Amino acid sequence: MSIVGKLLGKTGSLRSLTRPFRKKARHLVRFRLARMKRARIGAEIVAITGSSGKSTATRLISRFLQTRFATREQAYQNTISACTQAILDATPTDEYLVIETGASVPGSVVEMAGLMKPKVAVVTMVNVEHRSAFKTIENVTKEKGALVEAVAEGGFAVLNADDENAIAMAERTKQRIVTFGHVNDADYRVVELGLGDSGTMELAIRSAHGTHRLSTKLMGIHFWPSVAAAFAVAVENGIAPETIAETLKDIETGYNRCQPYEIENGPTFIIDTVKAPLATLPKAFEVIRPLRAPRKRIVLGMLADHPGDSNTAYKKAYRWAAEVADQVIFVGEHAHRHKASAEEIANGRIVEMTTTEQAYAFLRDTALPGEIIFLKSAGVAHLERLALGFDHDVRCWKERCRVPETCQACGLYEYPYERHPQVRRQKKLARWGMRKAATSRESKSRPE
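Request: output the structure for the sequence above.
Response:
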């Protein structure tokens, strides 16, 4: 490689040194463009944050509003970059932008809130997340409360009445407060909550508009804050409760959020591999308790956001999982930390697997038709591949993949990880070629 190539090539030293500055410069330019556009667009913004349930709430709110309004949705990716892009993509015909808002580092929500100035701010719940960045729940509350503080004149905030940290945010705005809850009294209160025969959530919400019973396709009752918050936002924006109930019946869970994945003549997976904060595991595991199956197994990968040492966290996770599952399979570098007894190890109650590929081979060899296999891990482990491998030729078994997307969204799981950059370039060139060809055909078809 020439000296110029070594300096200016994609992996060149000069490009590597200047990359952080170029990234920051691009962000500043895009942010300022988005701020200028935000002042011009007529769409109302609904912004959703919370330590859990915000992606589902975002999708539900968007679907409910779409029954009456032109609505654009930004879910799953909840960074300032995604927020900026959502505003830049807005068109004059959009009436609502529904934007998921995440707190990754101190100041992240503050920046997004100042840009969006939402008509509606939603807080699903507050727990300690991104522990290394925020340390305490007080810091998380302060950060997420910036969204409530930024609600525009005439707007309102939708807060969880059962969460003391969320409801305390009411003091940070002079705008109207709408509450939802289950235990405590609220404007929109869940008065009935349970599971149907298939393990999907059923609930009833009481408000000034009456009591409305809702059936869902969401696995587990832990989705109730997302549904209640979305119901409140939709009704307050003029959507009839009957329309919401009818729409809700057909909404599937998002990728890897307690997503059922049935294999023909094989097991049924429940994929919950986006996040795995320690405190949320008991509620997640409860999803499979009422289900009937010849066997129930839980596969546990990397945990996140836990206080104290890892040994204690993984020990707790194993005990919780063992209460509802016939077998627990730990995967990854922390697999040995479960602290199960010698008897439990000997009789196969607990199984350790060093890699995801090993875990897949084990599941493939031991799967029973009709059994339930619950996959739970932080997103970085991409345990969804364990299910995908049953009906796809999965060849990407990279441990700790840094791609933030799910494997389904990435779409490259049938290629070895090392080939991903090459395949991405080929697909990009193919798309560019198709666009160029389409432009050429369009220009030739125009009358002179």
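The first strand starts at residue 44 and ends at 49.
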